[in-house]
Amino acid sequence: MADNLFSRFIYKHQHGVRRSLKVVSFFVSLLSLGMLAIYYGFPQNESTDKLFVSAFEWIFSFYVISFSLRLIFNLQRIEFIKHNWIEGILMVLLIYDVVSLFFFGVPILQNTFEGLGVENFTPVYILFIQIYLLFFVGIDAVKLSSYITRFKIKTPAVFGL
Question: Could you tell me how far CA 30 lies from the centroid of its own chain?
Answer without folding.
Answer: 12
